[in-house]
Amino acid sequence: MKAQTFLQLPPQLVEDSASNNGSSVAGDCFDDDFLSDAGRESPSNADSLAEDSDDEAVAVSSADMARLRAMSYDRSRDRRCDCDEDDDNSHNTNDSRDQSRTRPRTRQRPQLRIQDVDLALDMGGDNGGDGDGAYQPLVSILPRGTKPVRLVGEGAANAVFEIKLPPGSRVGAQFQGKLLRVAKAPVLGRAPTSSDYYLRQQEFFIREIQPHLGEHAVSQELVVLHKSGIVDDLNAMLRDMNHQRKPKFQGSFIGHASWGFLVEDMRPNGDDGSILIEFKPKWLLQSPSAPKGAIRCRQCALELRNYLKTPGSKSPRPERRPCPIALANPDCPQQVASPFRIAPQLSALQDDARVQAILDKIIHHKAIQKLRECQKSLDHVGPLLPPTNLDFVVAMTLRDCTCFALVPSNDDEEIKLRFGDFDFKDPEKKFNHWRGTEQDLIEGGFYTADWVVCGDTYYHPPSLCSLEWSGKPRVGDAVILLMEDNTTKHNKLSSYQKNGSPSSAKTGKTVYRHTADLAALHKGLEPFKREMGGAQSDSIYNNPLRCDPRRG
Known about the structure:
By secondary structure, this protein is an alpha+beta fold. The protein is 24% helix and 13% strand. It contains 13 helices and 13 strands.
């Protein structure tokens, strides 16, 4: 495929993410643990088939108005995080989250009570056409007669739609370049989605995300859907295209609600030759709670675990996924640090100098550096200890956001890079999952494994992590992941056998035992087979830094 041909291809519908735009490859974004959506903040009250109410209830209650005024006050303040300043200081990573920096500091101003400030909330008048494209009201009102045009993306908890305002609408400028993001209904027959869900998400965005990322965050604002009639139209569209949706999303619908979000539309204009590259940066630094002898970063360890757990799935092997800490690491071999790992759909164009330059610009973009600084500043302990403040939750949110890079056709123009998908994750629901995942990675040997063994065959782990190719040759026991056949089919509990006490009986090896579908695993790992004799292989997987399994 020629570069020019590919760069003219429109992005496809993203299937695994409710991001605010499409993707150039289906299924390229995954949750922190793609096998679990536990703990993601979702509306507790929703009725996917409820009709819009025509009663005369006030769409914005007095309590909601107070929260909106508080958000308006917060947005008007000069709130900026000090992550880059914190990076210049050393941190003590003792066993206490109290060592972490607490809240994002704001520039000092005279203390004012919110009730002393006259904050007029713009509720969607016709003063949005200021012509500069920067108009962002705190709250907009969706005009009755607005219709959905297409489903842009959907996930387990949300869906994103392109919408079209009725002809002659006076607020067209307000909705220009924006998409409608709404919550799905988790359970049929519930009451309408409460305003608290949407207000809580927006409070989190304004108070915790924007101070850190600023202009690098996809813009998001509240929109009142009350009496617009849009929810019924959205669900009608989902019904009509149900057979075209990913199987796990079929039959899910939008919860009846008086609120939604307007999010910045990052999709390319089909006429100007621009393209969108979408990926998840994930953990741009090693987990603070990773074991001392880790030779794999947190994300690569997770990808390795997930692949060995379900080798027959359609999920790509870990080496085809980006290693987050290799994004801008000049010390890795090209096959490990290649920028094409963030865009595997472009792998056929690896010899194209322009595409290479584009991806290099993305991975070295100042926004990626900023995201890394914020992740580092917000969490110095890791997910094994309970959080004592919101910093850790913000850090985990930034570790699971999506990067959207809009690449113009003209090389002289700047790449527009934004981060999105900042759903608040309730720590009371999510922390056990975060901690359990980290414990699995540590106690299962996924951070430290030198080899994967199936029967009598040794395989190089298919992870290609930057840490595997860094530092001095490993000494001590070779760490083995011994995969044994899982004869109990369709039993999730038996697909991963947790081993809290690996065996190391003076053999020169530390062995962690796991179960899997060995037939599928042998097939998937064939390119990584270790040749035990003869000349040294020149394969990229032949890493001279690994412990030799024959020692001892």
